[in-house]
Design goal:
Largest sheet of chain A: none
Order of helices and strands of chain A: HHHHH
Shape of chain A: elongated
Strand content of chain A: under 5%
Low-confidence stretches of chain A: none
Number of strands of chain A: 0
Oligomer: homotetramer
Number of domains of chain A: 1
Mean pLDDT of chain A: 97
Largest interface: A-C, 39 and 39 residues
């Protein structure tokens, strides 16, 4: 069991959650993406001669780290949930991951930036996890 | 000048911002609301015999603090903005402030919780500032 | 490879890091502990009749989540590090994890709070990882 | 009254605080410095031809924003405080503000970076507020 799974399994309100698998995956993806984007912003900042081409990437990395951190925290709470808050934050997280993932994909492909390739994968995974959780909430 | 105004006025990309007044107000409202909601969650937690009635309020305070913090950071960045990220995060912030403001309003009115009255005002102000900024972006 | 390892391995300044194993473990522990403490605060909040006994635990969970989040972000940056900042934040993280771990241990033992047992383990692991990283930096 | 003052004045545990003035000033300084440092990192990122000289400044801005955010949140909590956590986080905040303030001072002086001049002032104010609060706690 991951630590996210252990915490959800021991939570007194766990039985109220109908989509535990999608929720677990999304919390894990948000915390992972927050770390990866923080690290990618800093890796871009350390790229010396390429730095001028990575300004937009750094900015989107920082936004995505902040949005994923907030989303991961909101999702980690099961007590007295409010669906308007959860849904709109999940949509914001999807948008941030999409924008950052697209930018990183470009640098991974055109400039062979390997940290951007790792970051793109985390962003894509988090975007998909948000979409899957949103779908399970609509159902 | 507030510190938010001083930073925006000295930013190299300031001339690209067409709605500076709405942006300034929204950044200030987000950081204020993040502090106020963090404090209201803790004030509720210290309410002794009333605590059981404040569980939903604490949860919404914590969500609103996290969402406002992320929104205030994203808005503080002027370099290479992406409107899909800004707009969806502003909508999430509106939703979090609406839910928290409604809950605090109830406790301010029915239980005379004075910290909830202060928090309600910050949430209403931040919700309105997000709405005004969104309107100015659509224009 | 974990995502933290992948990001560190592709970072342009990776070769400047002499204690990569301790750094990796500490970043992973900080992000884990931030999630676990956020979740434990919310689990405590959902404990109904036991809530009054968990006020101090919730407060320490929230502090520990905030301190671990900040520490995990600072540690994720390899570009132009400043050792006074790193060391003092690691010491603060140790203190927050110690206080939260001690409180959770008590509730795990005396009230059989299973989320506190999981949280205690994350806090102990993070405290030890901070200590190990500090030791490797002094060397 | 500022919003920080209003929240502290209505907090059920306010009477337990002996150094309210120092606490209020420090919370305000932490949230201000978190916003200012987030903004300065982004302003530096938008400086075009000067960007290569501002790498260390951006990194310290980001660290200082994260550390001040965490410190401001921890300080905003009055319920069941733990002095080891407060003190060590205040010391970490002092160190982050000192390092960031020194770096910004250099760019304000040598490169006439006006956002760095504003940021230096916020960092100095926050560093002093942390020192004053620490002194009041030792007393």
């Amino acid at each position: 069991m991951t630590h996210v799974q252990s915490m959800l399994a021991t939570h007194p309100r766990a039985s109220s959650v109908s989509n535990m698998q999608a929720l677990t995956a999304c919390i894990e993806a948000c915390f992972e993406c927050a770390q990866v984007c923080t690290s990618c912003a800093d890796a871009c900042l350390g790229e010396g001669g390429h730095l001028a081409h990575l300004v937009r990437c750094i900015r989107l990395n920082l936004d995505c780290a902040d949005v994923c951190s907030a989303t991961g925290r909101v999702l980690s709470r099961l007590t007295e949930p409010t669906s308007s808050v959860l849904k709109s934050q999940l949509e914001a997280c999807q948008a941030a991951c999409k924008a950052c993932g697209d930018e990183c994909e470009m640098h991974a492909r055109d400039m062979d930036m390997k940290h951007c390739a790792v970051c793109m994968e985390s962003c894509r995974r988090c975007e998909a996890a948000c979409q899957a959780l949103l779908s399970s909430m609509a159902a």
